[in-house]
Design goal:
By secondary structure, this protein is of the alpha/beta class. The chain has one domain: TIM Barrel. Helices cover 38% and strands 16% of the residues. It has eleven helices and twelve strands. The chain is globular, with a radius of gyration of 20 Å. The protein binds ligand PBG. The site of ligand PBG has 12 residues, from helix 6. Ligand PBG binds next to helix 6.
């Protein structure tokens, strides 16, 4: 595309911005409720709504409350919810056995949501960190994060989640080769229609800080995740990872974090045209919410602008903790 315009005054860009009507005609991108995936935190108990200090407005919910949240989300037209478990520290082990327990908190939540709101797409997280005594996404031996051994555990997790009724599996661990292994296992077990949204370009980011509080992994984590998550300085590598995961059978791919990585979103969409998602992560949420609560920015406007920018950058959808708030704004006619 080679945009052409005459010199001023024949072209005056302000003509098309003069009124709301003309601005609407010239608008290139739209945000819709169908673009939203809502990440929620699940914990044990009954009727529990537990605030997360570093994510004002976000709570850990017991399974009954998550079901209510899913019903509310469905009512708002949100197509998908993504579950993250807060696991009782007493259940964390070196072998991460709780990860594929069909009755773990995440799997109970999948079943409960699918029973109550079958039309809601349920997405899961596949990684060992919520169940790992050392907070890492993979098995650790002598300080090394083990790749292939971890994949065996991830495959077990994936099969149990699929069995529980998950619609979309989200491997967020960044081990090499896990998409192919999970896809093959799903096919062999007859779960042919379970989708994989690969966290393909996931960076070793400080923006995940509040999330690790939310799932109770911050205290446990020893060291950092730089040997498996990407270096924030790299862009070409993201394209190689996305291509690799698509070739292994990912249906959708993700860039994470979101806002500081919009260049990656655009490059991924342009290069492959696959369904592409961004995760507006906990630290991004906390910055916007925190500034809004202090009266430093207009929270609603910054929220809506930040999400529109993902669409402009080529994303087909966004995982965002703001999902219900955004859905309400869109239903009230925000454009
Ligand atoms: C862990 C996982 C993380 C997030 C999603 N899955 C944290 C991490 O990699 O340490 C981050 C989400 C967020 O910050 O909102 N597998």
């Amino acid at each position: 595309m080679r945009p052409i315009s005459a010199p001023v005054p024949a072209t005056r860009f302000r003509r098309m911005r003069r009124s709301a009507a003309l601005r609407a005609l010239a608008q290139e991108t739209y945000l819709a409720v169908g673009d939203l995936i809502w990440p929620v935190f699940v914990r044990d108990g009954v009727d529990v709504v537990e605030p997360i200090a570093s994510m004002p407005g976000v709570n850990r919910l017991s399974v009954d409350r998550v079901v209510k949240a899913a019903e509310e989300a469905a009512g708002l037209g949100i197509p998908a919810i993504c579950l993250f478990p807060y696991t009782d520290p007493a259940l964390k082990t070196e072998g991460c056995e709780e990860a594929w327990n069909p009755d773990n908190i995440a799997n109970r939540a999948i079943r409960a949501i699918k029973a109550a709101v079958p039309e809601m797409a349920v997405m899961t997280d596949i990684a060992l960190d919520p169940y790992n005594i050392n907070g890492h996404d993979g098995y650790v031996r002598d300080g090394i994060i083990l790749n292939d051994e971890t994949i065996e555990a991830l495959v077990k997790m994936a099969l149990v989640q699929a069995e529980c009724g998950a619609d979309i599996l989200g491997p967020s661990d960044m081990m090499d080769g896990r998409i192919g292994a999970i896809r093959q296992a799903l096919e062999s077990a007859g779960h042919r229609d379970v989708a994989i949204l690969s966290y393909a370009a996931k960076y070793a980011s400080a923006f995940y800080g509040p999330f690790r509080d939310a799932v109770g992994a911050s205290g446990a984590l020893k060291g950092d995740k730089k040997t498996y998550q990407m270096n924030p300085a790299n862009g070409d590598e993201a394209l190689r990872l996305v291509e690799r995961d698509l070739r292994e059978g990912a249906d959708m791919v993700m860039v994470k974090p979101g806002m500081p990585y919009l260049d990656i979103c655009r490059r991924v969409k342009d290069a492959f045209g696959a369904p592409t998602y961004a995760y507006q992560v906990s630290g991004e949420y906390a910055m916007i919410r925190g500034a809004a609560l202090n009266g430093w920015v207009d929270g609603d406007k910054v929220m809506m602008e930040s999400l529109m920018c993902f669409k402009r950058a080529g994303c087909d959808g966004i995982l965002t903790y703001f999902a219900p708030d955004v859905a309400r704004k869109l239903r009230a006619g925000w454009v």
